[in-house]
Amino acid sequence: MRPKNLEKEEAIRTIALQIIAEEGLENLSMQKLAKAANVSPRTIYIKYENKEDLLIKLFIEEVLGAYEKAVLEKFTPDMDFTKGVKKLWQNTFQYLKNNRHSFVLLQYGKSSPLLNKAFQQANIQQGHFFAPIHQFLELNAAKGIIKIFPQDVYRALLFSPVLDLVKEYFDYQERPKQIITEKIVSECCDAVIKGILK
Amino acid sequence: MRPKNLEKEEAIRTIALQIIAEEGLENLSMQKLAKAANVSPRTIYIKYENKEDLLIKLFIEEVLGAYEKAVLEKFTPDMDFTKGVKKLWQNTFQYLKNNRHSFVLLQYGKSSPLLNKAFQQANIQQGHFFAPIHQFLELNAAKGIIKIFPQDVYRALLFSPVLDLVKEYFDYQERPKQIITEKIVSECCDAVIKGILK
DNA sequence: TTGATAAGTAAATAAACATTTACTTACTTT
DNA sequence: AAAGTAAGTAAATGTTTATTTACTTATCAA
């Protein structure tokens, strides 16, 4: 049996993310992707059932999976609260600023009903994303270190700002304004931490 | 001369937002829209040059414009800092939770390169969106009431969490978790304010 | 009332779309 | 080295797409 050419598989994923980042999810077509990845349309259908399947796997596995791994690098739920949050912010900013293509699809995950639904299903079926962060927050809430909120609210309070900062970091390249540096990210993180501590 | 039928114009915009919210921007087509709005495809092209023009006008005028107006309701830049931020959060949550269709396209504005570019251009050409908020923050920074950050960073810190809370409010309807109430929104707002005060 | 005119329609156009068919290739197993 | 097989290709499928053409309608100004 002829074995799979892993380079082709990777090209499909990489080029798909690139097209989405540059032209938008609205403008990704199977034929355009095949041509750009130097592959026959049929080849895409070996690995993916259809276009929706491709998008969902790209989003869940390629983007969310890798993003989660990068964010949780050197993080443990039993860390000191301030140190833990700072580490998570650092990891997030570092990873996303070096992976703009992933960042764009990640943002689409908050808009597109297809990806949104896929995320919720994956979250239930294959275990929750960012589970160690949940644990971390529960632990610190129980210890009385931070204010009590529903789990999902912590994410809004603690982590949505850093995603916005990444977006501003990329926007910088397109219009003149102050660049987002690691120092600014760190100072923002301090402000967020101050707000959530009891 | 036969006058424009304003009902048709509004139907086009309303149904477009509805399709985007339910099926995604990826799945909005001019023919689908025409059919759903009970209008000939040609009628859409009277008001809009092409599909991109429709999307941009929908985003900038219908969504961003109305959103800005609602958020700034009863807000003035010389308000007390805490009162001002609380008012902005209240307005945001109230308006968006009652306008889910607008919220979805608003979120697409952070993903789609087309809408993103359109936003940046509109921001420059027709004056900055949310200018009173800029003023408000500058004033409070000058008075030494809040920490000093670049203007765009304030938005990330102060306002991205409330958009995330709106998203969670809508997600509630699809999977069981704690509902986002006005009380929780208000408590989150307090935390954010605490973090940014000097 | 009528003539001008932009709003509106239904149907058509050509291009692009997702997916499949029919075939070839390259590798493993025997 | 030959057979078997999944990976891979090029070209075709029928559908849907954005947009236009050719025509009709409704209103206003004269």
What layout of secondary structure does this protein have?
The structure is a homodimer of 198-residue chains.
Chain A (H helix, E strand, L loop, with lengths): L5 H18 L6 H7 L4 H7 L3 H22 L8 H17 L2 H12 L1 H13 L5 H12 L8 H8 L1 H13 L9 H15 L2
The structure holds a DNA duplex (30 and 30 nucleotides).
Notes on the protein architecture:
With 198 residues, chain A is mainly α. Chain A has 2 domains: 47 residues, Arc Repressor Mutant, subunit A (Orthogonal Bundle), CATH 1.10.10.60; 138 residues, Orthogonal Bundle (Tetracycline Repressor, domain 2). Chain A has 11 helices and no strands. In chain A, helix 4 crosses helix 5. The longest helix of chain A has 22 residues. The first copy, chain A, is globular and about 60 Å long. The mean pLDDT of chain A is 96. Chains A and B meet through helix 1, helix 6, helix 7, helix 9 and helix 10 of A and helix 1, helix 6, helix 7, helix 9 and helix 10 of B. Chain A binds a DNA duplex (30 and 30 nucleotides) through helix 2 and helix 3.
* Total DSSP helices of chain A: 11
Radius of gyration of chain A: 19 Å
Tell me the number of strands of chain A: 0
Biggest interface goes to:
A-B, 50 and 50 residues
Give me the CATH superfamily of the largest domain in chain A: Tetracycline Repressor, domain 2
How helix-rich are the residues of chain A, as a percent range? over 70%
The count of domains of chain A is 2
Helix and strand pattern of chain A: HHHHHHHHHHH
Low-confidence stretches of chain A: none
What assembly state would you assign to the polypeptide chains in this entry?
Answer: homodimer
**Overall pLDDT of chain A:** 96
Quick one: overall form of chain A? globular
Strand content of chain A: under 5%
Largest β sheet strand count, sense and barrel closure of chain A:
none
By secondary-structure content and strand pairing, the structural class of chain A works out as mainly alpha
Could you name the CATH topology of the largest domain in chain A?
Tetracycline Repressor, domain 2
